[in-house]
């Protein structure tokens, strides 16, 4: 039974690497990082060559891309989106605000970086990062997911 579960997880991870669907959520960004995320999804940068597409809602998403310092109001919404996203899933913090809160971290309404609310798998620094840096980060994450799937398969084969 556990072996079957492992194989299912490995299969889901492999599927994710072929066509990761991305959901973008702004937890308090100035809009700079959002513009770069949107630009990264345009034909100019052609993210579909890696299968990267925009997900319409959390239930169809594989990767949650978060921009902005984490405000108190947005934290609960982000947690809810995270719970609504099926496993296996990844969270990417895009920009210095999402990583640490940046210059807004001492603001009365800001908690800090997004990892104060949900586990973050990848941090892409910059204020804002360039679209190609965002795509490169996601591609690195996909390599990690592929490796994880292979490790799970190897473990299941040993048992
Ligand atoms: S990292 Fe810079 S560009 Fe991005 S939301 Fe913060 S201030 Fe704006």
UniProtKB/TrEMBL annotation:
SUPFAM superfamilies reported in the protein's UniProt record: HydA/Nqo6-like
Keyword check for 4Fe-4S: yes
Keywords from the named record: 4Fe-4S, Iron, Iron-sulfur, Metal-binding, NAD
Cofactor(s) needed: [4Fe-4S] cluster
Keyword check for 4Fe-4S: yes
Annotated NADH:ubiquinone oxidoreductase-like 20kDa subunit domain residues: 30-141
Transmembrane feature ranges: none
Secretion signal span: none
Family: Belongs to the complex I 20 kDa subunit family.
Name of the protein described by the UniProt record: NADH-quinone oxidoreductase subunit B family protein
């Amino acid at each position: 039974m556990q072996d079957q579960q492992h194989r299912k997880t490995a299969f889901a991870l492999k599927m994710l690497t072929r066509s990761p669907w991305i959901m973008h959520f702004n937890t308090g960004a100035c809009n700079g990082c959002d513009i770069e995320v949107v630009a990264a999804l345009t034909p100019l940068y052609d993210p579909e060559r890696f299968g990267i597409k925009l997900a319409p809602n959390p239930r169809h998403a594989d990767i949650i891309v978060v921009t902005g310092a984490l405000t108190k109001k947005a934290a609960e919404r982000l947690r809810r989106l995270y719970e609504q996203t099926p496993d296996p899933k990844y969270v990417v913090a895009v920009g210095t605000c999402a990583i640490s809160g940046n210059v807004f971290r001492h603001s009365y309404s800001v908690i800090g970086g997004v990892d104060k609310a949900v586990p973050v798998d990848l941090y892409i620094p910059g204020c804002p990062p360039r679209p190609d840096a965002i795509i490169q980060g996601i591609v690195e994450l996909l390599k990690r997911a592929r490796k994880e799937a292979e490790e799970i398969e190897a473990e299941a084969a040993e048992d």
